[in-house]
Specification:
This protein is mainly α and 89 residues long. 87% of the residues lie in helices and 0% in strands. It is rod-shaped and about 80 Å long.
């Protein structure tokens, strides 16, 4: 039983090391993807703002939240996102 416990311990140690390295790789991939998306977030905000400003330029009152205002903002964000996705690909 003494000999087998050494193998069992080594086996568990190897599995723990493998699990730890896989976890570190997954965290590194997530951080890389987050940095990539964060890098383009400001571009998305600026372009969506410009699109919304152009579309809302002739609106008489944009100080009150209305369904039309929300729809225009949502459409502007969608358009900016699709343009950015085409550029990044």
């Amino acid at each position: 039983m003494g000999r087998n416990s050494g193998w069992l311990s080594a086996s568990i140690d190897i599995r723990l090391i493998f699990a730890y390295t896989e976890m570190k790789r997954a965290i590194a991939r997530e951080n890389e993807e987050r940095q990539k998306s964060d890098r383009f977030l400001s571009t998305l905000v600026i372009s969506a703002s410009i699109i919304a400003a152009i579309r809302l330029a002739r609106e008489p009152d944009i100080t009150r939240p209305t369904p039309r205002l929300y729809a225009t903002i949502f459409d502007s964000i969608s358009l900016a996102r699709s343009i950015l996705n085409r550029i990044v690909r």
